[in-house]
Write a structure and sequence with these properties.
With 265 residues, the chain is an alpha+beta fold. It folds into two domains: 127 residues, no CATH class; 109 residues, no CATH class. The chain has nine helices and twelve strands. The chain has a ten-stranded antiparallel sheet, sandwiched between helices. Strands 2-3 form a two-stranded antiparallel ribbon. Helix 6 runs antiparallel to helix 7 and helix 7 packs antiparallel against helix 8. The longest helix is centred in the N-terminal third of the chain and has 17 residues. The radius of gyration is 21 Å and the shape is elongated. The two termini are 13 Å apart.
Length: 265
């Protein structure tokens, strides 16, 4: 399951805030991957980007241009190409309590960058040697597999209802969870098993992949799961755009789904 993609210790490394990354995207006319974007009000954006621009200038990642603007320093655009013009991006969110762990790995023309969120809105950026898939397995601190077997319990419900039930469960609103599951037609025994998994959860995981496979041709996929330890490892799979199935599949099935999504090449 694991592959080797060591961090290139001789390569440049940066620590940039979300505001600095937003300025980099603005001055290069690019769009940041969704995990890196933080929405701010107009007034907050002006102040935050002013401070961020000064920081980029001070650290040599940006330089003044004619007309009182700024641009990326020579070489910086090439070094940040996997972030600014990615052909593939993998976003990983592992919530094992506070804070959640966010990692993003992006690739462009053989170059790979790994971004770790050190604290909210602050990202460490490393150049990685190796393929994108192998890099994801190597740089993410994946949890150990729980000692549980798959019960095969499953239920189907609308995607919107699944997201709402998940939100209620994370907030510990169990009467509301029971009511929502009952309204969705989930039988009491299965609902009780799923609730136990949430109450004993070790981790809620989400991995998203977006990849360019040709001119104006893209593919995307996602694996979402709940690791409830002895109460099971539940995989959420979308049957179509509006319907999802949630099933206690066991840890091995989740790794198989992740392998199929990410690969190693």
């Amino acid at each position: 399951m694991t592959a080797t993609a060591p961090v290139d210790k001789a390569a440049p490394m940066w620590t940039l805030s979300a505001d600095e990354l937003r300025v980099v995207a603005r001055i290069t006319a690019t769009v940041l991957p969704s995990m890196l974007r933080i929405d701010l009000g107009d007034d907050d954006v002006i102040l935050a980007e002013t401070v961020a621009a000064r920081s980029l200038l001070a650290h040599g990642l940006a330089m003044p241009t004619d007309g009182h603007g700024i641009g990326l320093a020579p070489g910086a655009a090439d070094q940040l190409a996997p972030l600014l013009a990615p052909v593939a991006v993998v976003e990983v969110e592992l919530d094992a309590g506070q804070p959640s762990r966010h990692v993003m790995v992006a690739a462009h023309d053989g170059a790979v960058l790994a971004l770790h969120e050190r604290e909210l809105g602050v990202w460490r950026i490393d150049r990685i040697s190796g393929a994108l898939g192998a890099a994801v397995w190597d740089v993410v601190e994946w949890p150990g597999e729980p000692a549980s077997s798959a019960s095969g319990a499953q239920f189907v419900l609308p995607v919107s209802a699944g997201l709402e039930v998940d939100r209620l469960a994370r907030a510990g609103l169990w009467p509301e969870v029971d009511r929502a599951l009952a309204e969705a037609g989930v039988d009491e025994t299965t609902a009780r098993k799923w609730r136990a998994a949430h109450q004993q959860r070790r981790l809620v995981g989400r991995v998203r992949l977006a990849r360019t496979i040709g001119p104006e041709i893209y593919e995307a996929g996602e694996v979402r799961w709940l690791d409830g330890g002895a109460a099971g490892v539940w995989l959420l799979s979308e049957i179509d755009e509006v319907t999802a199935v949630i099933e206690d599949v066991g840890a091995q099935a989740v790794w198989v789904a992740l392998d199929a999504l990410i690969g190693k090449d």
